[in-house]
Amino acid sequence: MAISMNSKRITMSAIAAAAGVSQSTVSLVLNGSTTIKLAEETRRRVLEKAAELGYQHKRAEHLPKGPSARKIAFVFNGLTPYDPFLDAINACNERAWEADRMLVTFDYRNSAELTKLIEQEINQGDYLGMIFASSMTRQLAEMELSPQVPTVLLNCYLEGSGSSESYSILPADKLAGYKVTAHLLEQGCKRVALIQGEPWMEANSLRLEGYRQALINHDLIPDPQWVRVGNWSLHEAYEQTRQLLALPQPPDGIFCCSDYMAQGCYQAIAEAGLRIPEDILVAGHDNQMLACEMEPPLSSIELPYDEMGKLAVDTLLQLAQGEKPIALLMKLEGELLIRASTKGQPVNKI
């Protein structure tokens, strides 16, 4: 069973964008941390924006306490610098701390020997359970390690998942692709192009499905020439945008499957003497801090890693108490943040 969950809670990333600071700074302020000295003006601004947005901090006393084990194992396989998935780890750590638990992270780095040692540590230590995570949304043929504690899969799922032991939390990538494309169409675009990442990646394929479905639902036939491979590269996105703008019928809206690629798209549009959003609309994916700093600010949909991380800990606490979570497979949708890059109908000069 798969469900789509649209959280109405205000996320720390939304507060960070409103206050013009990093998500880490927001976390420090809202959790009352004194370990790092922050300017009082920064603390005040974060608290004011949080109050304006209606953020309600979830206190530890409202979370289930469960058995006496104090630690939660978070197992993953490597991260790249500035990886957005760090938001999920930070969120897990925050929620674990609220529940009076300690998150212990393990990076097994594709090492069979290290994997075995991690499994032994979890089995022999004071661990309430394990969150097994992947920075890339993917299907697992089998678990790399199976400790004797409750387990939640984060951003991954088991092939043929149907076991009551397999609880998975994923982003609703198809819905994200649909929402962004539908927004561009509703803003007046008639020819929406997609600059995708690497086609073999599951997240990319699902966003492409959502893009196509949105076009069909708006009585438009998907045109293969408007779908380009950007491979998550700024340079490739730049080159693909140049090619799109050179078409006899170029797009009047472009959906980039990452905010990083949208930077290359912006550059190509500017070099062509066109303006965003007056001549062409552009939207991104991930809602990273750079989306707010681009000119004009980029409309983008969140990767709901923050909410996914918190839900992973909450689900694990339920399992440790012998409770049954809401579903085996839970998909969370991200919020679409509409900014200047998609405000107003393009004048179709191209």
Structural class: alpha/beta
Oligomerization status of the protein chains? single chain
By DSSP (H or I, 4+ residues per run), the number of helices equals: 11
Give the topology string: H per helix, E per strand: EHHHEHEHEEEHEHEHEHEHEHEE
Strands, count: 13
What is the averaged pLDDT score? 86
Helix content: 25-40%
Radius of gyration: 21 Å
The percentage of residues in β strands lies in 15-25%
What is the 3D shape?
Answer: globular
| Largest beta sheet: strand ordering | 1-12-6-5-4-2-3
Low-confidence segments, given as residue ranges, are 1-8, 59-66
Distance between the termini: 45 Å
Give a verbal description of the structure:
It is a single chain. This protein is α/β, with parallel strands linked by helices and 350 residues long. It has eleven helices and 13 strands. Strands 1-12-6-5-4-2-3 form a seven-stranded parallel sheet, sandwiched between helices. Helix 1 packs across helix 3, helix 4 crosses helix 11 and helix 6 runs parallel beside helix 7. The longest helix is centred in the middle third of the chain and has 16 residues. The N terminus is likely disordered.
